[in-house]
Amino acid sequence: MRSSCAVSSAAGHGRTGKLFAIEHENVVPDILTLSKPLANGLPISAMVTSVEIDKVCKDKGFLFFTTHANDPLVAAVGEKVLEIATRPSTMESANARGEQLLAGLHRLEQRYGCIGDVRGVGLMAGIEIVSDRESKEPAVHLAEELSKTMLQLGLWCQLQSQRVFRIGPPLISTEKQIQKGLDILESVFRTTPNTQPLYESQSQSTGWRPELVCRNLLDNMESNKQASGNNNDGWNAVVGTSRRVFSPAFRSESRHGTISTEEDTQAETSSR
Questions:
Q1: To 10 degrees, what angle do helices 262-271 and 231-245 make?
Q2: Where is the signal peptide (predicted)?
């Protein structure tokens, strides 16, 4: 006979988008233990099991005792926590905000080489800080520096095992609050030395400078407007500028019109 036991502490009560994290694996354990989140931090825990196992415990005289047994305060809080955690809106919010959080963390992973891995589900995520992505060598000192800067900017991310940031926002976090946290993380990784920014090497190798592109487009449009007094001529300046700042194959739709290369413009003129 095989038995299973699952611990659902920080990963329970809706944090992962389901009431208990083990539900993601479609497993029904023989014993499920619950603790801290059950009463939002107050001293309460629980062991959930089957009728069969409970009967065996009674027959064998098993005794469970705790200092806080029958405490009315924590019992009332625990009941309310379960009522809120089982609301459909709680699960939906954890899923939605969790997707937002993980998407933002994966964007950071694409921008900074010191992030060796991003993992998690729902509103429970982890960022692993490494000195090399291939070897996964931990960057302990860098992780500590990142942690200090996060705290200075008002963001608390628990650093575990000296290299993994454990991120678990409150279940009631709003879209705006999650985005603010992601913005702080971006600022921390951007300003801390040795985070191995990847966007710098990409822009240098391709010559892609978004801020210069926008500035050139606007400057050329404004100059042409002043010279001709015609908005359409101003847009023609943007079309001409695109030849210099975009690749020859570039063609993009916008709400104003189509940015084309000079070759596209000549071809369209000839066809008329």
A1: 130
A2: none
Fold classification of 89-201 is: Aspartate Aminotransferase, domain 1 (3.90.1150)
Q: What is the residue extent of each domain of the chain? A: 5-86, 89-201, 210-271
Give the Cα separation of 138 and 117 in Å (integer).
11
What's the rounded mean pLDDT across residues 64-77? 80
pTM, to two decimals: 0.65
Q: Are 165 and 139 in contact (CB under 8 A)?
A: no
Whose tokens are 């084309």? That residue is: 260
Angle between helices 198-206 and 88-111 (to 10 degrees): 50
Instruction: Say if residue 2's pLDDT is above 60.
Output: no
More confident residue, 49 or 263: 49
Distance, in Å, from the CA atom of 150 to the CA atom of 261, rounded to the nearest integer, reads 44
Residue 86's alpha-carbon distances to 82, 114, 183, 255, in angstroms, are 6, 38, 31, 44
Mean pLDDT value across residues 198-219: 55
